[in-house]
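REVIEWER CHECKLIST
Item 1: Sequence provided? yes
Item 2: Single chain? yes
Item 3: Sequence as submitted:
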Amino acid sequence: MTNPSWRHEYQRALTTRDAYEKASRDVFDAYRTVASSPNRPISPTAAAADKVAEIERLTADLTVSQRSRADLQNRLDTLSTSLTSLRASSVTSAARIRALEAERTSLIRKVRDRDEELRGKAKLLENIQDEAMTLNLQLNMAEENKRRLEGENQELVERWMVAKRREAEEMNTASRFS
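Item 4: Structure as written out by the authors:
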């Protein structure tokens, strides 16, 4: 007595996920290109450092969740195997089968919850990485603008000094002949 509706639901969820990922492929490729760019600043700002720390924390959380999911999946596989062997070996084990089915259902629900949590954490991690990249790009633009303005200022000061020196020389020349 297998219930094919969960398979249909699972297949539909996979199809939806694949469609979402394919729709966002350009964004992912652009992010990878920007992330692998050698023009990233070496020393991040304090905000970027906070983002890096948050990324590291989220990465650690994601790793723990993935391990937990793998453990739950292993337990689910073990219970599914046990359930199958009990069904084949004895009809009198109906009470044990019901208990294992209940635990299996619980584990399936936990695996789904864990999968949803992993998707949420992965999306959050991606958003934070995007934000960190944006901050780094803004920092690079601000530093480039600063360098340009410093150069312009130096050029203006030099031109002003030349003009004042010329004025002073003209005044000295004019005062000698008066």
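Item 5: Key structural point noted by reviewer: Residues 94-176 form the longest helix (83 residues).
Item 6: Recommendation: ____
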